[in-house]
Design brief:
Beta-lactamase, five-stranded antiparallel β-sheet, 14 helices, binds glutamic acid, three-stranded antiparallel β-sheet, alpha+beta, 306 residues, 46% helix
Amino acid sequence: MSLSEIVEQVHREMADHIGAGKVADYIPALAEIDPRKFGLAVVTCDGDTASAGDADEPFSIQSVSKVFTLTLALEKAGVALWERVGREPTGSAFNSIVQLEHEAGIPRNPLINAGAIVVTDELLADHTPEQTVEDIVAFLRTRADDPSVGIDLEVAWSEGDTGDRNASLAHFMRSFGNLKGRVEDVLHVYFRQCAIAMSCRQLARAGLYLAHAGTDPMTGERVISEVRTRRINAIMMSCGHYDASGEFAFQVGLPGKSGVGGGILAIAPRQAAIAVWSPGLNERGNSLVGTLALERLGALTGWSVF
Ligand code: GLU
């Protein structure tokens, strides 16, 4: 089967499931999304693309943004970043505060909220919040090769209105000396990075460097070193799906990062970047149909890191 046939088949197989799961409602602007949306896009290292469903419709990438800010922070801070954030799975919820107390304000990994807030703080050092937001969006526009990528400000404001837990995490870490910037500034950037809207096609294209040892196979540009690319993939595999990361590795077998908007970016090293979107979430906050679609895509392509 060709890649387009596989993607079409996965889309057809999902027909009975589409609409399943529960749309995130703790951010009011996300609660309004139609649960029957489904998009899937694959971009291969050879330059092939295939997509199905609502693959061109932008959605809120939410925590998928954490992979891209981690890339930028590693480039900026190098290994010193690991003094401020760990790389162990948590086994607790994405916004948990309990572990932080035991671990003296050093979050377990950069893909949970506390860790991502530290990563954002690293990007903010020596920059204004506005400049930092612009740099993140500019990075995604370049990586997606699409200047239309932008922020859904309604979602960003909605996050701000309901962001007490994130504010608590930030204040708590600051009390341990693990936040350099002002909490308001760090959250300003964090809420906007989460509210970036991208389509599956843009997201898969943007993540392609992670499938190609840190270079963009379309342009030849080096985005990040090969070693760091492996490390980001390792963290996605062990920590990319909140406290269900083991389950995702078991079911799909690829590094991936999910967001509460229902998007998942998955990486098949040396093969392709894959983005899927279906807003209904399972009980652990990961896209229910998106995970199923990736499982089927993996089975039909044979892509797995195992
Ligand atoms: N902006 C969301 C929050 O911090 C991100 C949640 C997610 O996608 O995991 O609550």
